[in-house]
Amino acid sequence: MRVSIDSDVCIGSGMCALTAPSVFTQDDDGFGTVRPGRADGGGDPLVKEAVRSCPVQAVTVAED
């Protein structure tokens, strides 16, 4: 799987980082980012929940 956040859409709600903190974090401006080396989701079962919890659908998962 490939995890990404569309920075043009992200509003910085932080739901991704709260839901799956091993995969997502927030940058200095408060916007969501994928942690370095975690773009594959790291096997975290909460990644898909983080996708659902994003209020603006900025987080996406593409299955390989």
TrEMBL record:
Keywords: 3Fe-4S, Electron transport, Iron, Iron-sulfur, Metal-binding, Transport. The keyword Transport applies. GO terms for molecular function: 3 iron, 4 sulfur cluster binding; electron transfer activity; iron ion binding. PROSITE patterns: 4FE4S_FER_2. Residues 1-29 form the 4Fe-4S ferredoxin-type domain. The keyword Iron applies. InterPro entries: 3Fe4S_ferredoxin, 4Fe4S_Fe-S-bd, Fe-S_cluster_ET. Its cofactor is [3Fe-4S] cluster. It comes from the Bacteria. Ferredoxins are iron-sulfur proteins that transfer electrons in a wide variety of metabolic reactions. This is Ferredoxin. It comes from Streptomyces cinnamoneus.
